[in-house]
Amino acid sequence: MSTLGEAITTARRALGATQEELATAAGVTQAALSRYERGMREPEGEVLSQLADALGVTEAFLKGAGSARGAMAVDAHMRKRATAKATKWRQLEARLNVYRMHVRHLMEEVSLRAQQRFPTFDPIDTDPADAARMVRMQWRMPIGPVPSVTPWVEAAGCVVLAEDFGTSRIDGLSQWVDDHPLILINRVAPIDRLRLTIGHELGHLCLHSSEVTLTMEDDANRFAAEFLMPAEVIRPQLRNLTLGRLHDLKREWGTSMQALIERAHELKAISTEKRTNLYKSLSSKGWRTKEPLSDELTPEVPKLAQSIGEAMANQGLTREEIALIAGFADPSRNTIFTPPEKRLRAL
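The line above is the sequence of XRE family transcriptional regulator; the predicted structure tokens follow.
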């Protein structure tokens, strides 16, 4: 597959469109589109323009997307449940790849001066919990709970985007955009789950920027647990847990009661029998599927993407010019600064 073919395929999958649907929208045959995507032929002139317009991107975006470091087909880190449909997570992976390239185009125009450094570690040499502690220290985060983690992540130059994934089975994805990290989160998830997802993806970005391990999901979970619930601070609070105590801790730490139970068990603050009994109590109240208090937590609101757009506007660029720089064909409907449900052009 050519780099242009990869770009067309990835942009199509990001829209959740079939070859037949894209071919119809672009005014080409499905057989021709198949050849373009497989790299057997390259669309030129009016055909490339029609494909780009149907995909909601510019011709320059399609031509340049696959030539950047880390082509459009690169795999993403993803926090998903075992029952997540493969078609859905492949679509979201493709969508993250498309956003990654849009952000890359913007970063070529904007010099992003991060307040913090985004550290990376060798997962073979560094324990995930130690990595999380070092990140907190380097970022000079408070010793205890952090009401909102998104501002800390964005202050280190990580672009966070939030949109409705259309499924509750996938929570978030992440990738590096050259020297800048990108996290995409499911904005309809409960706030406590969003916080854990951001911590999980942060763990991937810090630990797995270049190394892939068989324990990477467990590594990311351990990183997130320590990042959000530092052992030395929370351990004394996890003894003698009751449902009432879990309510108080959820409000204080911004994590789910189930995450608190797991943390307590991991830190040996409660026994396996106590852990089982607590889960039975949650189940009896229907809280295993929907916990209370999540809507009382501080929302996680990404702002860096909006700030980048405002910075470019302050330089005298119009909304249309900014969108074209990012590679969007229709500035009124397709920018990372507009509501997520309006970003992708309907085929």
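Note on the example: Strands lie at 77-80, 159-163, 170-177, 180-186. Residues 231-296 form one domain.
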